[in-house]
Amino acid sequence: MPALGTPDDDIDEVRKFYKFWDYFKTWREFSQYDEYDTEEAQDRYEKRWMEKQNRSGRKKYEKEERKRLIKLTDRAYKLDPRIRAEEAREAAAKEAGKKAKKEQK
Predict the structure, then answer these.
(1) Which segments of the chain are extended strands (E)?
(2) Per-residue CA distances from 90 to 55, 82, 87, 96, 97 (Å)
(3) pLDDT (tens digit, 9 = 90+) per residue, 4-16?
């Protein structure tokens, strides 16, 4: 896992940190929400059916967890002073380019 870093870090390192969290896959399994106990199955067909039902039930909780992580990452990215400073530098460079182009005409 990349570290959060310091205010003096290179912007590429900061973006690497956020990219890691954008693609982070949780190791939680959400088996506590399973509806069926597969040990109680009468045969393998019933056990497979129970496992399928449990997997489909877990997807809901996995999606909620993914949304929570995305929301957290987006909020941190928007409020990060290093990102804000880089965006301000990019906007100033873009404005200077427009101004230079206008002066050439």
Answers:
(1) none
(2) 46, 12, 5, 10, 11
(3) 888 888 899 999 9
Helix (H, G, I), strand (E, B) or coil at 98: helix
Report which DSSP code applies to 26. -
Exposure class string for 5-28: b at 16+ Cβ within 10 A, else e? eeeeeeeeebeebeeebeeeeeee
Could you give the CA distance from residue 47 to residue 44 in angstroms, rounded to a whole number? 5
With a pLDDT cut of 70, the percent of the chain lying above it is: 100
Residue 43 has pLDDT above 90, yes or no: yes
What would the two tokens of residue 68 be? 């929570």
Q: In the predicted model, what is the mean pLDDT of residues 27-31?
A: 88
Q: Which residue has the tokens 């310091």?
A: 6
Q: What is the pTM of this model?
A: 0.73
Distance CA 76, CA 63 (A): 20
Residue with tokens 């804000």: 84
